[in-house]
Amino acid sequence: MDALTLTQVTKKFGRTQVIDGIDLAVAPGEFCVFVGPSGCGKSTLLRMIAGLEDVTSGQIAIGGRQVTDLPPARREIAMVFQSYALYPHLSVRDNMGLALRQAGTPKAEVLASTDRAADMLSLTALLDRRPADLSGGQRQRVAIGRAIVRRPKLFLFDEPLSNLDAALRVATRIEIARLHRELGATMIYVTHDQVEAMTLAHKIVVLRAGRVEQVGAPMDLYNDPDNRFVAGFIGSPA
Ligand code: ADP
Ligand code: MG
């Protein structure tokens, strides 16, 4: 059974067609990267998978279950944004545990899960700090930790590294790859960075103006792009 299935998903904002009939299947444990130029619909597609945006037509299933009409909280997903979206008045510990507490998880269990995630991300020493007292890289690790704590079926990342400087971008990318291996989770990751796409993905989905231009394993796209647009985006030699 697929971890994620999109069937003829479309999105219109007013009269503008932003997503134009996307079909996609993502296998359990797969690391799937959406790439494409700015404005091609990557975030919109991710937000529809998350339930933050309604689909205009089409269907979305997560783990074989239809979620098209379910609110985000019932989709068993966790999303990591480019802007960390942490609560400034809460400690790192409480930011990471909030969703579980809101779901009524017993306090001891929330603490255990938070501690485990903090350990995986080297955040243990920072658990009592507030977001304002963290660096950008640390804040993004907290946002990733908050996603892990919820043990989602599907992780959704929307350009999570684009606010970090180059060195931190590499370090955090390696950390995300390690987490993917350790958790065995399915991840959908949006980026416009070729290096991120090539190094993280099992499968790359190249988007252009709301449509899938080509789907494939990184080296297959690199060696055998369908057209110049894909070649240009993947960085294949001309
Ligand atoms: P990407 O993430 O690939 O840069 P987006 O999904 O953010 O692209 O945007 C795709 C297109 O949809 C863009 O033309 C953008 O202006 C438009 N768009 C995104 N959100 C809205 C919205 N809430 N209302 C109207 N247009 C939107
Ligand atoms: Mg975007």
From TrEMBL:
Domain ABC transporter: 4-234
GO molecular function: ABC-type maltose transporter activity; ATP binding; ATP hydrolysis activity
Keyword ATP-binding: yes
Cellular component terms per the entry's GO annotation: ATP-binding cassette (ABC) transporter complex, substrate-binding subunit-containing; maltose transport complex
Keywords: ATP-binding, Nucleotide-binding, Transport
Family recorded in the similarity comment: Belongs to the ABC transporter superfamily.
Protein name: ATP-binding cassette domain-containing protein
